[in-house]
Design a protein that fits this description.
Elements (H helix, E strand, L loop, with lengths): L6 H13 L2 H8 L3 H15 L4 E3 L4 E3 L1 H28 L4 E7 L4 H15 L3 E7 L2 H10 L4 E6 L7 E15 L22 E2 L4 H9 L12 E2 L2 H9 L5 E4 H5 L8 E4 L7 E8 L6 H17 L17
Parallel strand pairs: 3-4, 3-5, 7-8
Antiparallel strand pairs: 1-2, 5-11, 6-9, 6-10, 6-11
């Protein structure tokens, strides 16, 4: 049987790829620079290939070096999962759990979720990371996160996902907008040129474009918001209209503004709130329990009701 790389060597290689500096990589691994250099050399000798090009000024990875780093990240994440299996088996939702959440969910859902979660599971130490979907999933795959709270549809690849509940979109505009004068809005009545969206990289942007039935919404506009709060200010300034998830309305995002929210009349666009996890993760039991907890809280409607200026949705057959 051929000799295999050690986790220590793989960890050194990943650190070098992240810092492109041997001294900084060694500090990140809490070893001396000579120890790290020796570990990289051992790995190159073992694999019989050059992984790192280095001179007195620059450090760069070879093509095969990039390939090795990608596989090393996966192996290190799986090794960490292996270690976590024994700990997690002792008591579910206890100890540390690293949760990633996207910006269009975190400030609107977590305030109503975290207090009861802490009360129900006092031994749980929850560490939060807010970021866009792509970067969260990268961290999840690398083992830097245990679970991610995201919105679908989104290409999650090999990751395991569980849909929790639907979050419908509402039409939001100034009170003097013609469509705001109706009780409900037809999606087809919206003009794509008027729709304001978040900037590229936010999954909510793609959800809104898909909801409007066009890939050209806002394509000819240079006005894009970096956050939902900026988006609201732009709408209030008369620059256009937008779509907001019902979750944000229930959390009071329109409070203190002159904007109104109207439900859609048919073919109501929505996103699916979901949890994602690595298939090999030791936190699968935590994942399932957290999913069930979130679903139960959603059914209880524990978050505040939507603003009074947003009419109650009619019952649909």
């Amino acid at each position: 049987m051929a000799a295999l790389p050690s986790l220590r060597q793989l960890r050194y290689m990943v650190a070098v790829s992240e810092h492109l500096n041997f001294r900084a990589a060694a500090e990140a691994c809490f070893v001396t620079q000579s120890t790290l250099s020796a570990g990289i050399k051992e790995l190159e000798t073992l694999l019989d290939v050059e992984l790192v090009e280095r001179d007195t000024r620059n450090v760069r990875l070879t093509d095969v070096g990039h390939e090795v780093v990608g596989r090393a990240r996966t192996l290190l994440a799986q090794a960490n999962d292996l270690v976590e299996v024994a700990r997690v088996a002792q008591q579910p939702l206890s100890g540390s759990l690293r949760l990633g959440v996207i910006p269009t969910i975190a400030p609107f859902m977590l305030p109503g979720l975290l207090p009861p979660l802490r009360a129900a599971h006092p031994q749980l130490k929850l560490y939060l990371r807010e970021d866009q979907t792509e970067r969260l999933l990268e961290r999840l795959r690398a083992g830097d996160l245990d679970v991610a709270l995201i919105a679908l549809p989104y290409d999650t690849g090999e990751l395991h996902t569980r849909k929790l509940f639907k979050d419908e979109f509402w039409f939001v505009a100034r009170a003097d907008h013609p469509l705001a004068q109706t009780d409900e809005v037809a999606v087809r009545a919206m003009r794509s040129g008027q729709i304001l969206l978040l900037e590229e990289g936010h999954c909510l942007r793609e959800h809104a474009i898909a909801a409007c039935g066009t890939r050209t919404a806002n394509a000819d506009s240079m006005m894009e918001a970096t956050s939902l709060y900026t988006l609201i200010q732009m709408v209030e300034g008369g620059l256009g209209v937008t779509l907001l998830p019902e979750m944000t309305l229930k959390a009071g995002i329109l409070n203190g503004t002159s904007l109104v929210a109207r439900p859609f009349s048919s073919q109501v666009p929505a996103r699916d709130i979901a949890l994602a996890i690595r298939p090999t993760s030791a936190h699968r039991r935590d994942f399932d329990l957290l999913a069930e907890f979130i679903v139960a809280r959603a059914r209880e409607k524990s978050v505040p009701r939507a603003p009074s200026r947003a009419p109650k949705r009619r019952e649909r057959a």
